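Its record is quoted verbatim for completeness.
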Amino acid sequence: MTGGQIKERISFSKISSAAELPDLLDIQLKSFRDFMQFDVPPEERKDQGLQAVFKSVFPIVDSRENFELTFIEYHIDPPKYTVEECQERGTTFSVALKAKLRLSIKDEFNPNDPLANSIEQMVYLGNLPFMTERGTFIINGAERIIVSQLHRSPGVFFDEIAHPNGTKLYSARIIPLRGSWVEFTTDINDLMIVYIDRRKKFLVTTLLRAVGFATDRDILDTFELTQKVDLRTAGSEIIGSRVVEDIIDKETGEVILDRYQEVTEEKLKRLQELKIRSIDMVKSDKILGQEIITNTLIKDSTRSQEEALETIYQHLRSGEAPDLETARQLIERLFFNPKRYDLGDVGRHRLNKKLGINVDPTMTALTKEDIIGIIKYLLDLRKNHKVADDIDHLGNRRVRTVGEQLAAQMSVGLSRMARTIKERMNLRESENPTPQDLVNARTVLSVINTFFGTSQLSQFMDQTNPLAEMTHKRRLSALGPGGLTRERAGFEVRDVHYTHYGRLCPIETPEGPNIGLISSLTTYAKINEFGFIETPYRKVENGKASDEIVFLAADDEEDLLVAQANEPLDKRGRFLNDRVKSRVRGEFPVASPDDVKYMDVSPTQIVSAAAALIPFLEHDDANRALMGSNMQRQAVPLLNPEAPLVGTGMEAKIARDSRAVITSKVDGVVERVDAREIVIRKDKSDSKAGNIERLLDFENNNLVTYRLTKFMRTNQDTCINQKPIVNVGDKIKRGQVIADGAATDGGELALGRNVLVAFMPWRGYNFEDAIVISERVVQDDIFTSVHIEEFELQVRDTKRGEEELTREIPNVSEEATKDLDENGIVRIGAEVVSGDILVGKVTPKGETDPTPEEKLLKAIFGEKAGDVKDASLKAPPGLKGVVIDTKLFSRKKKDAGVKRREKKALEELEEWLITAKTEARRQRDEKLQLLLDGHVSTGIRDKNSGKILIKAKTVLKEAQLAKL
């Protein structure tokens, strides 16, 4: 295996994978694409991401309804600078976001036509950081990443706790995306209480009355707690049951039984004497806790909807309601108004699924059905018909990816902007403003910039090597805004859960305070539209594994038997063993092949990309495997990397998906190769390009150029340097690796070297963790790595005068400044060691009365001597290397040197442009001749003079076309 060329791998695996590995960066790229929808025409955009945010904030109407600002569509301009330019200039790689808005102004004379007086305008809303094709953001020149967050899913959670006296208490908590938290709990007296935002509490029946179940009978009927009893046939079995309503003797008006009073023997006789045929009774079911609703009704002091509304208003606002309508609106706003209370698509989906109800998925506020469903579920929980939720189950935790986090920030920014727009509308009653006058884009910008700059989930990318980069992008964190904190998180949250199988890696997590709170997505896992993690399985029908792959979320997998990937199958996919080792919830039963519903696609699916790089992982101790997968990320890229002799097959996948290597986008032949670029001539038969496409392809005569990155500094000061691994004349296939990057060899990840290691004592030199290396390791640069460090110096205006860059530094020898240019900046290519001057700078000293000696020096040598002190930038201790680049940024007017360099660069660009235009014209003419040769003309005339050059119905020939 010679270094550099594509490696041929022999696979010794006995188990083949049933599914292709997905693109490992998809979690970032797909989420951002869905948020921006930049490749979708405005009219075809789905109601998600940025589009959904705009739709939720607009239309904006002022308080008098004179103005209405409506959103039509948004546009994204291409980025102004390339990624490389942004890194060089220290700016943000961003795109301009513009929205087309319509302002309708009410016309007094034509009030029915809202568009009679409207202005449409494209409004600039600021620059939005844009994701690079590597899944990162360039913010102020530094590469950053938005880590996905694992948080509690919106929806309803049922819990069960034991009271100190032994009673079991049950609770249901509704967690919305935004709005008040509502909790229903039972207490030791078998009453059901509602808490709003964990502070205000009242009885559940009061809430039910307020939302429309006004009478006791309405409430009891809703929960099917009433039964009609025929007194003519009823015997002693109804003694002890309660009546629903007061029972009155019609003749005397005497109340025989109060509501909820228990029937005794003598009352039963009395009723039968009065010839009352039937009465409504509460279903008696003491053991199973149907009593909860009855007990709560007995305790409830309210009797009607009006009283209930007033009571709730008093609890929430601690004062009496001015009128009923105000109280009704408060309840309406609190739970049933989608602007104030939002469960989100996920919350609605989970409520419907959990409660078995069928509310419209677009209805994201609470409904009466939800409240009834939750109370019924709590009653079932009390009867032990249902089980409480497990908060650590991945069906109850979801992932907020980049797109969703950005949408939340945009929503905050646009809502703030909407407030200022309303204020401006109210101020501009008399005049007619335009959308541009109303919109202030700075509010949106500041929110987005704060998020990228300071959020706990916006992180400086770990770029030590391609694996570190990849792992960082696939990381899931339970910390961050709206998540857990290290101090509060207990053992259960951090522990491995059976639903992590195939979704979250049980191995890769940090050691230390964040253990278990930060985890990694497994190799095959993907995130579905609701944010739940799904893993693929092969479908098994009647004991036969099919080729159909199904992605299941943790909830869908709950009661299914799943076989392992290493279960032996025959050629037709039938299980060879008559007892199959399988998995269901946290158990591992041995089952019959007919009971198995699914099968794992690959043994690698339970671990993350980093853990999948460890050969024979199954023989490792879990703790050491954890340390190993974390330490691989700390390997610095070597000068001469070497692919491992024993790999796992993941090396090439990680090298490609981390975008460390360059792959060809076309089939073709290598035309030209040097250290900076690879040029490939496309095949004429390139399957993706049809005839017309080939004619329209002006890419330099079917040549495709790939520029290589040379000695680029990473965030961790390591070095990215791409090297071609193809030669002129090589045939290239689409997707083939043509250049190696940092820490890759032959298109595979190569984090180290294959060195010969002996496990033996060596005269005590390798005691404990010391190792002895041979001299050859050092001489032959086996473990040599290149690091690029950046040093900067600022030149300021001080109170005592301006600082300046110069090579004339007081009290410094000529030898020390020999490598500095006229600006005092070290030349490119100079070798520097610690203590050498990198940039010469002098600062004015304080004005003090000069001594006679200083006066004499000043008289002889002029102003310069003695009034400045040395403030140069020197190489820090331990530094030894070569200067590879210097940059001078100036805010003030440019000096002659800078102007000269810029003029030269502009001339070069103009020269290139002229050449490119000439070449494009030549190709255009050539292709038009090809296209038109032999066709009949409809007449061609000179645009300027109007002279007919070729008459109609002339057959076009090559010579005529050449003249044109």
The mean pLDDT is 87.
